[in-house]
Amino acid sequence: MAEVAKSPALRRWFPAAGAIAVTVALLFPVAWMLSTAIKPHSEVFTYPPVWIPDRFTLEAFASSLRGDMFRFLLNSLFVAACTAVLSVVAGALAAYPISRRRTAPTRVALGYLIASIAFPAPLLLISTYIVSAQLDLIDTYVLVILVNSVFTLPVCIWTLKSFFDSLPIEIEEAAMMDGAGPLHTLLRIILSMARPGLTAAGIYAFVTAWNDLTIGLTLTTSTEMRPLPAGISVTFLQEFQYQWPEMMAVATVATLPILALFIAFQRNFIEGVTAGALK
Asked: What is the pLDDT of residue 9?
């Protein structure tokens, strides 16, 4: 390490080498997923394993994306989009007063939100399932969206609160001197300035709901209502048969919306996530 500190060349290349190593480690599962998706069943468990199959095939994509899988995909898209909208709207309305009115009640509320992140989801789903069954909400979009929003809301509030803290309060004071109320200031001025923070919170909520397995598997019972992760587990993870190529093919398709989302909003997402750190 001392030689690295003394040599300008090593100081320049050492971080790059570390970044490349981390990138390779992160992309390894993705590459193996793609490799498995294009293999026939006979080559999935060959030893030693091979990256490029002897017989390239797209049968897994053709067979797995028929029928119920498209329905699962639409369910996940609808649930994730609604969760993102609900979490961002509720999170903004909660984060703004917590950021601007730093009183004992708001500090207690913020502490409660942070503490709620530590609760394990399966533990909370037990009581959620019992209450939802009594209210006849099991296997409904409303229940799945609300529960996903409850789990994503604390992080959304924390993210937006950090971003609101970085906005100059003088702009709000000038708006109030012109006669704007707190709600009008929030909707017309603050939210327009907080687009990066809203984007970061929305992407987090969308990705969390999109990738969720536990909620969809616990609170849905019919094929028509299952989101994609729950549908994949029920369809392909059977008692005596694991359809790995088909599962990897669906997983590959499922990563495309998330990849497109990050590519489209990567600048706003990074700015929103780092707002508190920059402050």
From this structure: 63
Torsion angle of the four alpha carbons 150, 153, 155, 158, in this order, in degrees rounded to the nearest 10: -140
* Count of CB atoms situated within 10 Å of the CB of 58: 11
Can you say whether the dihedral through the CA atoms of 213, 215, 216, 218 is positive or negative? Answer: positive
Amino acid at 56: F
Q: What is the model's pTM? A: 0.80
**First-residue to last-residue Cα distance in the chain:** 32
Segment 75-80 shows an average pLDDT of 93
Please name every residue paired with 242 in a beta bridge, in sequence order, or none if there are none.
237
Given a contact cutoff of 8 angstroms between Cβ atoms, the answer to whether 87 and 202 are in contact is: yes
Residue 237 sits at φ, ψ, to 5 deg, of: -95, 80
Distance of CA 38 to the CA centre of its chain: 27
Query: If you average pLDDT over residues 206-210, what whole number do you get?
Result: 92
Long-range Cβ contacts of 137-142 (<8 Å, 24+ apart): 138/219, 138/220, 138/221, 139/219, 139/220, 139/221, 139/222, 139/225, 140/225, 141/78, 141/79, 141/82, 141/225
Domains for the chain: give ranges and CATH numbers.
60-278 (1.10.3720.10)
Distance from C-alpha of 148 to C-alpha of 126, rounded to nearest angstrom: 15
Cβ atoms within 10 Å of 248's Cβ, excluding its own = 23
Residue 79 pLDDT > 90: yes
Residues constituting the chain: 279
Least confident of 69-83, 98-112, 151-165, 214-228: 98-112
Lookup: tokens for 78: 């609808």
Cα–Cα distances (Å) from 45 to 33, 112, 251, in that order, read 14, 48, 19
